Description:
By secondary structure, this protein is α+β, with helices and mostly antiparallel strands. It contains five helices and five strands. It has one domain. The mean pLDDT is about 85.
Amino acid sequence: MRRIIIVLSVAIFCLCGTTSRQAVEAAGIKIDKSESAQKKRKALMKKLMNLGIFLKVEVPGSLPRLYVRPKFYALDIDTKSSFVSVVYAYYFDGTDESALVRIFDGQNGKEIGSYSIVGGGLKLK
């Protein structure tokens, strides 16, 4: 399991790049929104669901809601951030300052945090 998480984390970094807006702007980097990159992100989100880390992603309005399972809590903060950044990159390109992914506990439905490239990355309550 640990080896899978390390491999997935490296893949996520390659797909999403940095998590700092200043670094993104300074480097002139944009999140790759090509069909190929989006397919890879979608496949990775599905794999994380199959591994029991993510439960589901819903978009009831303009902000995606990520529901996580208990295995998510056991991950280190960098891995959590990398995994959630995939959801962010799937739905956003990093240019909208109000864009964020809301994160919810999949068992009780309570909001446990958020992720925003502009807001400093992963914020957990």
